UniProtKB/TrEMBL annotation:
<keyword id="KW-0816">Tricarboxylic acid cycle</keyword>
<comment type="pathway">
    <text>Organic acid metabolism; propanoate degradation.</text>
</comment>
<dbReference type="InterPro" id="IPR042183">
    <property type="entry name" value="MmgE/PrpD_sf_1"/>
</dbReference>
<dbReference type="InterPro" id="IPR045336">
    <property type="entry name" value="MmgE_PrpD_N"/>
</dbReference>
<dbReference type="InterPro" id="IPR042188">
    <property type="entry name" value="MmgE/PrpD_sf_2"/>
</dbReference>
<dbReference type="Pfam" id="PF03972">
    <property type="entry name" value="MmgE_PrpD_N"/>
</dbReference>
<comment type="similarity">
    <text>Belongs to the PrpD family.</text>
</comment>
<keyword id="KW-0456">Lyase</keyword>
<dbReference type="InterPro" id="IPR012705">
    <property type="entry name" value="2Me_IsoCit_deHydtase_PrpD"/>
</dbReference>
<feature type="domain" description="MmgE/PrpD C-terminal">
    <location>
        <begin position="290"/>
        <end position="462"/>
    </location>
</feature>
<protein>
    <recommendedName>
        <fullName>2-methylcitrate dehydratase</fullName>
        <ecNumber>4.2.1.79</ecNumber>
    </recommendedName>
</protein>
<dbReference type="InterPro" id="IPR036148">
    <property type="entry name" value="MmgE/PrpD_sf"/>
</dbReference>
<dbReference type="GO" id="GO:0047547">
    <property type="term" value="F:2-methylcitrate dehydratase activity"/>
</dbReference>
<dbReference type="Pfam" id="PF19305">
    <property type="entry name" value="MmgE_PrpD_C"/>
</dbReference>
<dbReference type="InterPro" id="IPR045337">
    <property type="entry name" value="MmgE_PrpD_C"/>
</dbReference>
<feature type="domain" description="MmgE/PrpD N-terminal">
    <location>
        <begin position="20"/>
        <end position="272"/>
    </location>
</feature>
<dbReference type="InterPro" id="IPR005656">
    <property type="entry name" value="MmgE_PrpD"/>
</dbReference>
Length: 483
C-alpha cells in the first residue's frame, strides 16, 4: 500500500502492478510452441462461437454502429456481417459475438472469466490498423502477431484471476477483460511502456461493473454483451493514451481513500501466484461440447451418460443429487422460476435436467419453447445440489485445475443409478488430444451454419496449414469472414 501523504500533490512512482503489465506487454517474448498452438485453436473456436451467435436476433441487433449511419468504410470489420466500424465500436461488436452464447474458452480460479473475450479488442484494432497499413503501403499485422497479443491478454487476465477474487467484492470478471485488452491494444497502437501504464491506470479508475446481472434475481442478457462493453472501453483508453496523450494516474490502485484498493478491494493489494509468461493460454479450458457455464460442463457430461437410464423413467424419479465445487454452488445453484435464457444457462439444475430428459444440450435449449416443457421444472424441483470438498480442492490446485461434478439419480422404488463423476471436461488441457478434433468440427459446423459455401472452403483452406495461417496478414484472414 502507498505511504503517500494524502495532502501532498507530488505524484508517486507508478504502482508496481501497472509497471509489471507494461513491461510484460512491451518486452516479453513468447517462446512456447504449446501456447501458440493453443492460441491458434482458441482463435478458431472464438470465431466459431461468433458465427453461431449470428442465429440469435438479440445478439445481431448489437453488432452495427452505435447510432444509425455511424459507419467507417475501410475500418474494422465485424465477422459474419457487412459492418465496417471504428475500432471502438467494432471491439464491442466482436466481443459481444464471441461471448453471446457462453461457448468460448474459460479460466477458473479465485476469479472466473473467458480470456478469449479479449479478441473483441484485439481483432478490431488489428483489422483497423492492418487495413490502414495496406492502404498506405505499411506493414500489416499477421495472424501470428494477433496470436502473440492474445497470449499476453490471456496471461494478464488469467494471472490476476488466480488469487484475486473480484466476485467476492461484487464486481464482474469483465474488469479483467478491460484491463488485459487495454494493455495489449495500447501496444498494438504503438504505445510505449509509459503509455501502456497510463492506459492501464485509466482502466482501474473505471472501477468495475456489478455482477448482479449474472445472479438471481437480476440475471439477464447484459452478461452476454458485458465483455464487449469492456473491450470497447479498453480501446478507448488505448486510443486516448497513444493518440491523445492523456495523463496517467500512477497510484490509481494504491492511493489512500481514493484508489481502487481502498474504494473497491477492501484495502487489499493484489496478490500474484506467478510472474507473467504463457501459463494461461497453455492451460485454458475450451467449451467444446456444450454451451453451458463452465462450472457445470462436467455435470452436463454426467447427465448425458445417464440419459438412457432415466429418460423413460422420469415420473419414477425421487431425487437427483448433484455434487459440485464451491464455486458452482455459489454461482449456478438456482431454484424458482427462470426468467430468460440468461437465467437458464447459469442454472446447474436446468443444465442437468435438459440432457437427462432429451440427451442433448444446445444453445436453443435455453429458449422459451424448450423451457416451457413442464418436465424440466418438475425435474429441477427434485434436485439437491451440494459441495464436494474434493472437487473444490482440485479446482484450486494449480497442477490440476479440475472442474469436477457428479450426478446420481434415485428412484421411488429405492433403486438408483450409479454415481457418474467426471473431474475435468473434454476442453481441459488433460483432454486436448480428445478435444481438438471436436473443436475443429465445431468450427467447421459453425462456418457452414452462417457463411456461404465458397467462403467456408476458403476459410478451411486457410486454416489447414498452421504455418501459412500464421503468416497471413490479419486483414486478409478476417476478410474471409466479411459479407
Amino acid at each position: 500500500m502507498s505511504a503517500h501523504d494524502i495532502r501532498s500533490a507530488k505524484r508517486p512512482d507508478p504502482d508496481q502492478p501497472l509497471v509489471d503489465i507494461a513491461n510484460y506487454v512491451a518486452d516479453y517474448k513468447i517462446n512456447s510452441t504449446e501456447a501458440y498452438d493453443t492460441a491458434r485453436y482458441m482463435l478458431l473456436d472464438s470465431l466459431a462461437t461468433a458465427m453461431m451467435a449470428m442465429k440469435f436476433p438479440e445478439c445481431v441487433k448489437h453488432l452495427g454502429p452505435l447510432v444509425p449511419g455511424a459507419t467507417l468504410p475501410g475500418g474494422a470489420r465485424v465477422p459474419g456481417t457487412s459492418h465496417e466500424l471504428d475500432p471502438v465500436q467494432a471491439a464491442f461488436a466482436i466481443g459481444t459475438q464471441i461471448r453471446w452464447l457462453d461457448f468460448n474458452d474459460t479460466w477458473l480460479a479465485a476469479e472466473w472469466g473467458h480470456p478469449s473475450d479479449n479478441l473483441g479488442a484485439i481483432l478490431a484494432v488489428a483489422d483497423y490498423l492492418s487495413r490502414q497499413a495496406e492502404r498506405e503501403g505499411g506493414k500489416p499485422l499477421s495472424v501470428h502477431d494477433v496470436l502473440t497479443y492474445a497470449i499476453k491478454a490471456h496471461e494478464i487476465q488469467g494471472c490476476y484471476a488466480l488469487l484475486n477474487s473480484f466476485n467476492r467484492v461484487g464486481q464482474d470478471h469483465v474488469i479483467l477483460v478491460r484491463l488485459a485488452s487495454t494493455a495489449v491494444a495500447t501496444a498494438m497502437l504503438g504505445g510505449n511502456k509509459e503509455q501502456i501504464t497510463t492506459a492501464v491506470s485509466h482502466s482501474w479508475i473505471d472501477n468495475g461493473a456489478l455482477r448482479t446481472y449474472r445472479h438471481a434475481p437480476n440475471t439477464g442478457p447484459r452478461k452476454s454483451w458485458a465483455a464487449g462493453d469492456a473491450c470497447r472501453r479498453a480501446v478507448t483508453h488505448a486510443i486516448n493514451a497513444v493518440y491523445r496523450g492523456v495523463v496517467g494516474y500512477p497510484s490509481a490502485l494504491s492511493a489512500k481513500t481514493w484508489g481502487y484498493y481502498d474504494v473497491a478491494f477492501k484495502g487489499n493489494a493484489f496478490q500474484f501466484e506467478r510472474p507473467f509468461g504463457s501459463y494461461v493460454m497453455e492451460n485454458v479450458l475450451f467449451k467444446i461440447s456444450f454451451p453451458a457455464e463452465f462450472h457445470a460442463q462436467t455435470a452436463v457430461e454426467c447427465a448425458m451418460e445417464l440419459h438412457a437410464q432415466v429418460a423413460g423413467k422420469l415420473d419414477q424419479i425421487e431425487k437427483v443429487v448433484i455434487e459440485t465445487q464451491e464455486a458452482g454452488c455459489r454461482i449456478i445453484d438456482k431454484t424458482g422460476p427462470l426468467a430468460n435464457y440468461a437465467d437458464r444457462d447459469h442454472c446447474i439444475q436446468y443444465m442437468v435436467a435438459v440432457p437427462l430428459i432429451f440427451g442433448r444440450l444446445t444453445a436453443d435449449d435455453y429458449n422459451d419453447d424448450v423451457a416451457t416443457d413442464p418436465r424440466i421444472d418438475a425435474l429441477r424441483e427434485k434436485m439437491v445440489v451440494t459441495e464436494n470438498p474434493q472437487f473444490t480442492k482440485d479446482y484450486f490446485d494449480p497442477e490440476k485445475r479440475y472442474i469436477g461434478n457428479s450426478v446420481q439419480v434415485f428412484f421411488k422404488d429405492g433403486s438408483s443409478t450409479g454415481k457418474v463423476s467426471i473431474d475435468y471436461p473434454i476442453g481441459h488441457r488433460k483432454r486436448r488430444a480428445e478435444g481438438i478434433p471436436v473443436l475443429l468440427k465445431k468450427f467447421e459446423a459453425a462456418m457452414r451454419g452462417h457463411l456461404p459455401s465458397h467462403r467456408v472452403k476458403a476459410i478451411l483452406d486457410a486454416t489447414a496449414d498452421p504455418a501459412k495461417l500464421d503468416a497471413m496478414p490479419i486483414q486478409t484472414f478476417l476478410g474471409l469472414f466479411a459479407l
